Amino acid sequence: MYSREDKLRAVELFIKYDFSPQSVINELGYPCRGSLYNWYEEYLANDSDIPDANPYQHYSESLKRVAVDHYFEHGKCLARTCRALGYPSKELLAAWIDELEPGRRKVNRKHRGFGDDDKENAVIRLVTRKESAQSIADDIGVKRATLYNWKRRLLGEEAPSTMPIKKRDDMSIEELLEMKAALETDIDKLELKRAVLEGTVELLGKGQGVDPRMLTNREKTILVESLRPTHKLRDLLDMVGLAKSSHRYQMAAMAKPDKYADLRMRICDIFHDSCGRYGYRRVHSVLRAEGVTVSEKVVCRIMAEGDLHACRPGKRRYSSYKGEISDAPDNLVKRDFHADAPNVLWLTDITELSIPAGKVYLSPIIDCFDGKVVARTMSTSPNAELVNTMLDDAAATLTDGEHPIGHNDRGCHYRWPGWIERCKRYGITRSMSRKGCSPDNSAMEGFFGRLKVEFFYGRNWKGWSIERFMEALDDYIEWYNERRIKVSLGGLSPNQYRRSLGFAA
Fold first, then answer.
1. Which CATH class is domain 345-501?
2. Structure letter (DSSP) for residue 380
3. In whole angstroms, how far apart are CA 59 and each of 2, 54, 63, 69?
4. Which of 254, 339, 398, 479 lies 20 to 30 Å (CA to CA) from residue 302?
């Protein structure tokens, strides 16, 4: 296929180009990466030499000619010829073509990457039109349509298709200088556009596109100022679509000291104290409780500028429904989760928290008066003991005369004899949601959602044991009851709210 000299040349270039196979392929047009690596190993094994070998002697000259003729008669496609004839390999066929018809083999350059300079040079060759567009495309190894796409992206739709010029012999010195100046102007325009697009990518990110007009006036001003050392201000303003008066205003505004500097630091502290769980509304409530007068919109904007984003929800997977194993009581709540006093309406359910070490099941009871977690139990198994122990702990907080409604979904845990017997013993009136209707217990689902967003999602639990995870979960619930503020409670936590009303010491 390849001679000893061809292989040595490829290996020497491979070493010269810091072992970059792509650079060798771009220059020589051969071989594939695998062959190059094999040649290099053979080169090392033979003391910087490659022995001459001819493994293809079993192909006659007539078979070679048949394959080469088929290649030229059927679209110059190596793969098509190999499939049709059943021989040889693409690499071997390419060698036969170079041997029998030198210079006629079609070299596929689609793997080549083109930089901005390559595209600009190609566009300049196209618009000056000293040669046909097809010859330019063939020379650089792209399709004709690709060449015109580059021109539209760099010069815009309004650019002329060609810039016909006279032959050099018929042009005067003045005309040549004028043409040179026009080309230099086009190049400056292209360089300016490229610089603006690169700056836009840095400000917006690739995911949002690279249109400079998507930038705010402040962002446009920052971009313009970064490019002023190398480009004219007028050209920059025209390119980004910014008025000169707006540029002056933004420059004056940015020169002023940041009046929210102290507020930014305090918002950052509040956000991190909540372990990234507070959104702008709760951060605003904390600031208001501290006597800081500021609007929610300002807090939201400052948090967005500081990339302070609260946790996002994930998927809900666990369900405790096991079928209609006993008669279900009526739905007494009917989606009215309001309570005028503590221990009037309780909600409960079970949720699953899966970590690499295993699964943890949480069973809490929530008081609809203020959202406090009255009692909770955790286990690695969603069994009857999990919910029964929780109900015992919650009933221990009741005083004489308190008989709350206990609302839950149709999970099997709340239809077993042990649960029913305990509800009768403690004077708890049972209430159940409708089958497969999560909105009937939406307040409980809302608590699970907040817990998973603020505590569970977005954290790497790899290396955590089950015991350590349960301790962290218990600490979160303690923080939820004692310190986590609720906007509906006037910026107070459940325990703080109860103490303010005299329901707790």
1. alpha beta
2. S
3. 15, 11, 6, 15
4. 479
Backbone φ, ψ for residue 492 (5° rounding):
-115, 155
For the segment 294-345, what is each residue's pLDDT rounded down to a tens digit?
Answer: 888 988 888 888 878 876 655 555 555 455 555 677 888 888 888 889 999 9
Residue burial 287-310, b: 16+ Cβ < 10 Å; e: rest:
beeeeeebeeeebeebbeeeebeb
Q: Cα–Cα distance between 198 and 206 in angstroms, integer? A: 10
**Which band of pLDDT confidence, cut at 50, 70 and 90, is reported for residue 55?**
very low
Phi, then psi, of 127 in degrees rounded to 5:
-75, -30
3-state SS assignment for residue 140: helix
User: pLDDT (tens digit, 9 = 90+) per residue, 255-301?
Assistant: 777 778 888 888 888 888 887 778 888 888 889 888 888 888 988 88
Residues belonging to the chain:
505
Select from 128, 124, 149, 146 the least CA-distant residue to 137.
146
Report, in angstroms and rounded to the nearest whole number, the Rg of the chain calculated over CA atoms. 37
Token pair of 43 as six digits: 């080169």
**Per-residue pLDDT at 160 exceeds 70:** no
Nearest by Cα to 390 from 350, 333, 440, 431: 350
Query: Number of C-alpha atoms within 13 angstroms, CB side, residue 18?
Result: 0
Which residues lie closer than 8 Å to 430 by C-beta, 6 or more apart?
Answer: 329, 406, 414, 420, 423
Query: Could you tell me which residues are beta bridge partners of residue 377?
Result: 363
Closest to 155 in 3D by CA, of 193, 117, 125: 193
Q: How far apart are CA 76 and CA 106, in angstroms?
A: 7
C-alpha–C-alpha distance, residues 42 and 56, integer Å:
18
Domain boundaries, the chain: 4-100, 116-251, 261-305, 345-501
3-state SS, one letter per residue, for 156-189: CCCCCCCCCCCCHHHCCHHHHHHHHHHHHHHHHH
Q: How is residue 61 written in tokens? A: 């000259």
